[in-house]
Amino acid sequence: MAVLDVVHYGDPILRKKCKSVNEFSNLNKIIDDMFDSMYEAEGIGLAANQVGIDLNLFIIDITHTDETDEPHIFINSSIVSTGSDENMFQEGCLSLPGIALDVKRPETVKLKYQTIKQEWFEEEFSGLLGRAIQHEMDHLNGVFIIDRVGEVEKIQYKTALKELRNNTQNRITSEKQTKGFVL
Ligand SMILES: [Zn+2]
Q: What domains does the chain contain, in order, with CATH numbers?
């Protein structure tokens, strides 16, 4: 088990569409590490690319609000359809620390996904789980909550976003330089 670093806004892996999972044999370790990382960061959902892994995989745990629920693992997911009713809810994001935005999304989402046992399901979700699923699906497609709001809402975070992007780029540059000195 290991806590992985959550990558922030500005890292190119958060702007690309993630690859399908074809190899299931080493997934358990990745998923364990993702749960460790999510709990450490106090998040309720985490997409694989948020810890630098380019795979269509995300996890959600909303048991703090619903004790009858359990932690979820979604693999190779795609949105089949969404309901016509929309609602507004404030979302934060582990890859956008310090930013919270009211995001409008459909109330229900029908998701096709695979389990760790490679079984396929198609299921409709609503409430907080349905919202978290849509947030994580956005990540796997390279979309942030800042892309889901208007310019007026986004402008208040202009400086914060610039700072995040600069910090991420500095981190990537210094990691590259360190790698150059492996002896
Ligand atoms: Zn997020």
A: 12-177 (3.90.45.10)
